[in-house]
Every structure is written in C-alpha cells, then in structure tokens.
C-alpha cells in the first residue's frame, strides 16, 4: 500500500503517544543500518555531538537544508560532529533520486515504515534533534528556512565547545 506524503505526516502527528521528546531526555534508539549497512547506535556515538535530521524527498525545505547539513558535516566532523539523516520515504528509489540532486556524505538511514520517526515524533519535515556529547537531547529545530542555517551552526559550535563527559571503563 502506498501512502501520500500528507498521509505519512498525518500518521506521525496523530500516532503521538503524548510523550514527545523534551530537552534533557535520552533520545530514542535508531538501531537501523545506514546507507553503508552500518548500524547506527547512538550509544556508540556518546562523546560526539549528533544531529538526527528527519527528511523526505517531497519536502521542499528539506532540499534547502540538505546542503547546509552537508557543509556542517564536512566542516565539523573532525571535531566530533556526526549527522544522521533519517529519510521517511516509502520508496528507496525516491530517496536515492533526492540524494542525487542534494548529495550527502553523512550517514543516511531509510525509515520506510516510520519506525524511528514514531519514536521521535518529528512535528514537521524537516526536524532536527541535537544530541550533546553527554547523549542527552539538547535542542529540537523544526522546519528549515535559509535564515535558519546560521542558528543551526551556532548550536553545533556551542555543543562542540562543551567538554566530553567522562566515560566509565567497562570491566
């Protein structure tokens, strides 16, 4: 069964459990493979600044945001910044077509059954979840307009400037 983009967004909005994420929460797991077959495990990324971005091929603002995320990824990856794009298209073909016109070298997870999206409950497309080095949700950014790029970069820089948490050794 194929769903229109508006049906998917409506499903996300109305499937809400009333437990939307708040700043300071532990972000829900992603636990799905990226485009290279590597499982995205947020626990393994603890100590890094992670931006989880929900997007779709039919989303105009997503097309504007993608080059901004790509530039931030390239600029700050060596400082511990990780971008994970979560695509909610039902069709991998649409996702790949979008990425041909808006290339991304950061990690992309295809979430056709909106499994991850239902955990995060993004209020709109795109929606970005900023996770600090401590593994806690720090900011949520809804939508995207060109003027938002500066504020998104400021949040990334602020989070990167924080001291990484002490990681306890496992016995």
Would you mind describing this structure in some detail?
This protein is α/β, with parallel strands linked by helices and 171 residues long. The protein has one domain (5-16, 45-161): Glutaredoxin, CATH 3.40.30. The chain has 5 helices and 5 strands. It has helices spanning 5-14, 60-76, 92-101, 115-120, 148-161, and strands at 49-55, 81-87, 107-110, 127-131, 137-142. Strands 3-2-1-4-5 form a 5-stranded mixed β-sheet, with helices on one face. The model is unreliable at 6-18 (pLDDT under 50).
Descriptive key words:
171 residues, alpha/beta, Glutaredoxin, 5-stranded mixed beta sheet, 5 helices, 5 strands, 33% helix
- From the helix content, strand content and strand pairing, which structural class follows? alpha/beta
**Binned strand content:** 15-25%
Shape: globular
Radius of gyration: 15 Å
Q: What's the SSE pattern?
A: HEHEHEHEEH
- Count all strands and give the number: 5
CATH topology: Glutaredoxin
Give the strand line-up of the largest sheet: 3-2-1-4-5
Instruction: Tell me the CATH superfamily.
Output: Glutaredoxin
Largest sheet properties: 5 strands, mixed
Estimated helix fraction = 25-40%
Number of domains: 1
Low-confidence stretches: 6-18
Kindly report the average pLDDT value: 89
Per CATH, the class reads Alpha Beta
């Amino acid at each position: 069964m194929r769903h229109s983009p508006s049906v998917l967004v409506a499903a996300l909005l109305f499937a809400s459990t009333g437990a939307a994420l708040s700043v300071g929460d532990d972000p829900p797991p992603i636990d799905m493979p990226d485009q290279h077959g590597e499982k995205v495990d947020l626990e393994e990324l603890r100590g890094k600044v992670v931006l989880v971005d929900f997007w779709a091929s039919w989303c105009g603002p997503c097309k504007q945001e993608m080059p901004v995320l790509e530039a931030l990824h390239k600029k700050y990856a060596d400082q511990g910044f990780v971008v994970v794009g979560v695509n909610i298209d039902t069709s991998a073909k649409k996702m790949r077509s979008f990425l041909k016109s808006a290339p991304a070298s950061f990690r992309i997870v295809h979430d056709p059954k909106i499994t991850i999206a239902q955990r995060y409950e993004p209020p709109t497309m795109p929606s970005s979840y900023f996770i600090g080095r401590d593994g806690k949700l720090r900011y949520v950014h809804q939508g995207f307009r060109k003027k938002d790029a500066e504020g998104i970069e400021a949040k990334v820089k602020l989070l990167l400037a924080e001291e990484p948490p002490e990681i306890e050794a496992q016995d």
